[in-house]
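Inner membrane metabolite transport protein YhjE: structure tokens wanted.
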Amino acid sequence: MSAEAQQGLTPTGTIASAVDRRRVVFATVVGTTVEWYDFFIYASAAGLVFGELFFKPAGAGVATILSFLTVGISFLFRPLGAFLAGHFGDRIGRRRVLVLTLILMGAATALIGLLPTYSAIGIGAPLILILLRVLQGISAGGEWGGAVLMAVEHAPRTKRGLFGASPQIGVPIGLLLASGVMALMALIARGDAFLAWGWRVPFLLSIVLIFIGYWVRRRVEESPVFVEIAERKEQTRMPIVQLFRRHALLVIIAALVFAGNNAVGYMTTGGYIQNYATDPKGPIALDREPVLWAVAGSAVTWLIATWVAGWLSDRIGRRTTYIIGWVAQLVGVFTLFPLVNSGSVGALFLGLAILTIGLGFTYGPQAALYSELFPASIRFSGVSISYALGAILGGAFAPTIATALVQATGSTLSVTVYLAGMTVIGLIATLLLRDRSGIPLGPEHEAEQAKSPIYGAARG
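Answer:
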């Protein structure tokens, strides 16, 4: 067999065509972009308008905290989405689950765009808002694992990091679109018009994106790993039970790896910086539109860093790439608020851009890293649940914690210490794991995959 053919081998030993691989990459990028656009539109609106529209009777400061709490509440339901998607993804296939999560996320997002405010229907408004956010959380909990496995399990062995970066860049692209559309609406619907109807347009746009994402994902072939598992009739009966019986500690360590990235990332994706920089009673009080454009610009640097990190991890290993990323992220954490607090939009963008380099390097290799940690038969459950738990420990309440810290101390230094601590936790968790770059992913290598990648743990 030629060297080129060897590079095109899927985890099951078949040769994937270039067209098939490009289609998988395109589908995972488009699908995750649509999902995370929906998710980030909510976070952006929570930082900009939801406190005023849905929680105003609680008072200005409390309304902001309650608004950010609704962002975090969805994370509590990510494990439910991960459990459901992991179970059915390991039982009936990756592709079907991906289509269902896309539809659920889009429907919830569009309904938020139609939701009456507190002034119209009273307490029912925030309650329905929370319910729809919960549905978004369930969808997000199931989405990531399926997209990751579709990308990585279709990839040649030597390009898993690069292929795995494709669903990862859907996150910064989703942030770019969400911030860009919000900024455009802030330009079109100025002042009270934005509060009245401008914020709704980005949510309603999700209806169009659902159809695009659905069409793209339906055209992608099922993961070759799952196809072989199904042909062998080796689907695990209760994959979640098997996961926690044999790999509970691994799930926790993998979750802490993501938590270190997610807590820092949710300073922008969770809407905190947008709220902090535009608060008319805050220390900066910048206009809404330029802040949103600065966040959109930082999404571009995040995208580039994520893609480069995925590519680099195929050359120097996932673990080494992560370590570089944690150091870069720590630098970004300590430079963020000094630049933001300068009161300049340009400095705010620079602070976010520096931060996103580290974020990209601690996110780009994650798809390949997670996929190589778990055995084929329980892989969907393993990556999904680790990701969901990491999101709870990391980003779920990061904006709420940051808001409470500033209100309690009167300084953003406390937020910097909090984010630095989360970064160090992510670094320590990474150091506990062996690098398994290139390990065979097919079901015929289940015994090798089942050996613990944790340093100091029994490997047999």
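The chain is about 75% helix and 0% strand. The chain has one domain: 13-449.

Cheers.
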